[in-house]
Amino acid sequence: MSNNLTKRDIVLDIYDKTDFPQKEVRETVQLTLDAIAKALSDGRNVELRNFGVFEVQIRKSRIGRNPNKPETDVVIPKRAVIKFKAGKELKAQLKDMDVDAHEGSE
């Protein structure tokens, strides 16, 4: 069994805490994720107060090596990546996390 939080888990959690129909909650969650994805793909950062910031960064092109053929150089093209920086409240919650219990789950 996976310990990951899924989109379905989020929908069910919100559904359990509200009077909204599950279909409406599912559509709202998807629309939220779509808005975040669209902003990021447009090169915009996404700032969610008290949670964190999804930041688009451009990685420069560089030369890498194929581990199976180390004698061959490979060009890794310039690309966009997303970094996440936790907000103050999320960082505070992480301080209370039992890190020993999570150590083996990587």
Keywords:
106 residues; alpha+beta; 41% helix; 30% strand; extended
Brief overview:
This protein is an alpha+beta fold and 106 residues long. Helices cover 41% and strands 30% of the residues.
Structure description:
With 106 residues, this protein is α+β, with helices and mostly antiparallel strands. The protein has one domain (7-105): Irregular (HU Protein, Chain A), CATH 4.10.520.10. It has four helices and five strands; from the N terminus they run H-H-E-E-E-E-E-H-H. It has helices at residues 7-17, 22-41, 88-95, 99-102; strands at 46-48, 52-59, 62-66, 69-76, 79-86. The strands form two sheets. Strands 1-2-5 form a three-stranded antiparallel beta sheet. It has a two-stranded antiparallel sheet with strand order 3-4. Strand 1 (46-48) and strand 2 form a beta hairpin. Helix 1 (7-17) crosses helix 2. The chain is extended. The protein starts with 6 loop residues before the first helix and ends with a helix. The mean pLDDT is 91.
